[in-house]
């Protein structure tokens, strides 16, 4: 099962690499463009193309990151027309409809959830919805929301390509 870490910390980037994490999303919404650039530049020096930047394709490209991650309902097609593979484009999805649209517009992968209860993320969609999403998608689907070491295997059983999280990578 692949792992996708979401963080704003270089210490967590290092920890995620120790956990054999496939992708690490730098999400630091409060940082200025200059500060984000510096953080991503350092993260790329540590983890290379495993780094994915939240919403800022410009920063991702300039720093040599592996791609960009977009929030749900963001248009993906304009990004895909400007950034060809191997540059990755990920999308947050909360419904099958959002997942289908992200896939149609050219997303390379999606995070889907929240699967389990997670602070501030609304009602969990549950494992049945995750299973439906994973079975219907042609792109990899990562389970997001309330993921723990105890329920990680349940996400794999439901068909998720991997798990995505914040708190999962803080433990330890």
Structure summarized in a few sentences:
This protein is α/β, with parallel strands linked by helices.
Structure description:
The protein is an alpha/beta fold and 172 residues long. Helices cover 37% and strands 21% of the residues. Strands 1-2-3-4-5-6-7-8 form an 8-stranded parallel β-barrel, surrounded by 5 helices. Strand 2 (23-26), helix 2 (33-47) and strand 3 form a beta-alpha-beta unit. The two termini are 19 Å apart.
Number of helical regions? 7
Oligomer: single chain
- Estimated radius of gyration: 15 Å
Give a short account of the largest sheet.
Answer: 8 strands, parallel, barrel
List the helices and strands and how they pair.
Blueprint: E1 2-7, H1 10-18, E2 23-26, H2 33-47, E3 51-54, H3 57-63, E4 67-70, H4 77-82, E5 88-93, H5 96-105, E6 109-112, H6 126-136, E7 141-144, H7 152-157, E8 162-165
Parallel strand pairs: 1-2, 1-8, 2-3, 3-4, 4-5, 5-6, 6-7, 7-8
């Amino acid at each position: 099962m692949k792992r996708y870490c979401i963080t704003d910390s270089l210490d967590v980037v290092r920890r995620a690499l120790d956990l054999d994490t496939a992708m690490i999303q730098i999400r630091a919404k409060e940082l200025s463009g200059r500060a984000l650039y510096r953080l991503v530049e350092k993260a790329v020096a540590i983890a290379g193309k495993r780094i994915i930047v939240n919403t800022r394709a410009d920063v991702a490209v300039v720093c040599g990151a592996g791609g960009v991650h977009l929030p749900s309902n963001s248009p993906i097609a304009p990004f895909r027309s400007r950034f060809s593979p191997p540059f990755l484009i990920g999308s947050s999805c909360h419904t099958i409809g959002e997942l289908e649209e992200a896939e149609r517009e050219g997303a390379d992968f999606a995070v889907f959830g929240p699967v389990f209860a997670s602070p501030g993320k609304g009602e969990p969609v549950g494992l049945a919805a995750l299973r439906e999403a994973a079975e219907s998608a042609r792109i990899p689907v990562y389970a997001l929301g309330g993921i723990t070491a105890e329920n990680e295997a349940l996400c794999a059983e439901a068909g998720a390509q991997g798990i995505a999280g914040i708190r999962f990578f803080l433990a330890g």
